[in-house]
Amino acid sequence: MEYRFAERVRNLSGNAIREIFKVLSDKEMISFAGGMPAAQCLPAKKVKVFADELLSSQPVKMLQYGQTEGYLPLRESFLKYVENVGIKGYGVDNALILSGGQQGIDLMFKTFCEVGDKILVQNPTYLAALHIAKTYQLRPVGFECGEDGVDTEDLERKIKEHNPKLVYIVPNFSNPTGKTLRLETRKKIVEIAEKYGVVVIEDDPYGRIRYKGEHLPSIKSFDKSGCVVYLTSVSKTIAPALRVALAVADEKIIRKMAVCKQAVDVQTVTLTQAVVDQFIRTGEIDRGIARSLPLYREKAEAMLAALDKYMPESFVHTVPEGGLFIWGEFTDGTSAKAKFREAVENKVAFVSGNDFFADGSGDNTMRLNFSNATLEQIELGVKRLGAIFSK
Amino acid sequence: MEYRFAERVRNLSGNAIREIFKVLSDKEMISFAGGMPAAQCLPAKKVKVFADELLSSQPVKMLQYGQTEGYLPLRESFLKYVENVGIKGYGVDNALILSGGQQGIDLMFKTFCEVGDKILVQNPTYLAALHIAKTYQLRPVGFECGEDGVDTEDLERKIKEHNPKLVYIVPNFSNPTGKTLRLETRKKIVEIAEKYGVVVIEDDPYGRIRYKGEHLPSIKSFDKSGCVVYLTSVSKTIAPALRVALAVADEKIIRKMAVCKQAVDVQTVTLTQAVVDQFIRTGEIDRGIARSLPLYREKAEAMLAALDKYMPESFVHTVPEGGLFIWGEFTDGTSAKAKFREAVENKVAFVSGNDFFADGSGDNTMRLNFSNATLEQIELGVKRLGAIFSK
Question: How far apart are CA B11 and CA A38, in angstroms?
Answer without folding.
Answer: 45
